Amino acid sequence: MSDSQLPVLVEERNQIGHLTLNRREGLNALTLDMIRMLRDQLDRWSKNDDIVAVVLRGRGEKAFCAGGDIRALYDSFKAGDSMHITFFEEEYALDQAIHNYPKPVLALMDGFVLGGGMGLVQGASHRVITERVRMGMPETGIGYFPDVGGSYFLSRLPGEIGVYLGLTGTQIRAADALYTGLADHCLASDMLAELDRELNSMTWSDNAGGDLDGLLARMCSSKMPGSEIKAIRSAIDRHFGHDDLLGIRRSLETEHCVSYQDWAEKTVSLLNSRSPLSMSVTLELVRRGRELSLADCFALELHLDRQWFSKGDIMEGVRALLIDKDKSPRWNPATLEEVAPRQVNEFFHGFATGAGGIQRQA
Which of 31, 112, 160, 231 could be bridged to 63 by S-S, CB 3.0 to 4.6 A? Predict the structure, then answer.
């Protein structure tokens, strides 16, 4: 395999380490090999005094990263091996390492940033999107729950925005990403090459993070007009602040404001299409995440992972989407009314905080 065929491209230029996800035809979805390559290179650069910052991007215009390779995880569980759990352990360890990285990490996001892609970027010190970005956590649509630190970063969004995004899997655009705080700056896509030229010619001070701040402030915008989330924020907080999913759906069904009625109807349809069990666990997960540390959020998500393939809806969701492609998942339970609180609580049973997060496997 030539260097250009590697799933992650590695380059050093002007004291910056560049990492490029290189599965363009697969929308740069993460494999276990990619996760290991990213972690190994980040570990090397963290100890290299000649590298002052890291840039992370995806190859192509369609996606920075559209998530993890869920077909491989499905196949792993079907085969009876443990690769799917190893994948989550190492993916979360990588994501947590980015959150705690000792040098600035500039995440450049163009196109889709979904699921596992969100895990890579939300810990970056500098999160830059283009106008083409489509960002979200779509897990409940495949019978899963928002992971990769979603219980941490979704739970810390203003009001009930994180609950809304986690339950519905709604994808947001650039203006919404800036408004919600899921991105820091927006750069026009036709300026990406110019940003690279600037990075290649920068003279670094002892404060590389500050140097990047100055460059991005000069080239990017930190606010954009047209945020759809901002326009419906009061309705999101009102509806998604209810105690349980039945209350949330009932509230949406009785929306009386003409300005919000179309959105409320579409949101009810979205909720009705998602896995009832996944949504119920997601609601509990995000609300618990508000009180947990970053390390404990990752640990809780892994606690759920170890049960989910046998007890949750992900195998059925992947079957319907990728295997049989009938797009008619048979969720179990089939309706929100059938989900018992005891069934949800059992997934969280036995979890203890303070375990220190996800440790890298030897």
Answer: 112
